[in-house]
Amino acid sequence: MEKRVIDYMLVPLGLFALVAYHVWLLYRVINYPTKTIIGINAIHRRSWARAMLENLHNNGVLAVQSLRNNIMSSTLMASMAIMLSSLIAVLMTSGGKNKIELFIFGDKSEASLSIKYFSIMASLLVAFLFNLQSISYYSYASVLVNVPYKKISQDDEHEKLIVDFVGRSVNTGSYFFSLGLRAFYISFALFLWIFGPLPMFVYSFVLVFMLYFLDVNFHCGAIVDVSDEDISVRRPIKDEELGIIIGRPI
Questions:
Q1: Where does the UniProt annotation place the signal sequence (predicted)?
Q2: Residue 3 belongs to what domain range?
């Protein structure tokens, strides 16, 4: 019973650390986008979309190739996720008590083993679905980026709406790819849970520590300002202005 208590204490604490960090990160991305790498990348993707649409004759192929590379990355991640989830499903149905001897400590019951396998499989399936959504948005953006909107309509408002929509599609695809990648990170934490709650607990806090330095922008500099006239490096933009430029991530 004492070993089960360790699972009940350390595993929820590890998961809470991961969830709390990502809730905090979402708050920072929404309210202070220039202080996060995700927010800055979103601004640059909007600038990229406008630059591609400004000169489709020269940039059309480049835009499609760039989006195709993103589609290939999402496809690779989705393939890995569904393959690993299928492997976990096979392990769940194969049974066998010899696997339990691999545990260092913690709950060694068959019910606990099934819960661990199911948690890993669920996390991988979530990663698979996120990457599918990413592929969908990237594919949609690859079509929209080659629409000759200047020949369709000379209305400036219509042009602004198209550029904004393409930028949002590219950003949304990137958001789903990031979510799928983080689902992979969490699935590895659940995989370590098979060997006991302590490895999973330690990995969760190490992962939060590493993600903090990957997600937070420690360097303040000029941000590319997306305007209707041109794209140039201008003064640093306030967070309130950037909230209007990049929209709200999902």
A1: none
A2: 1-32
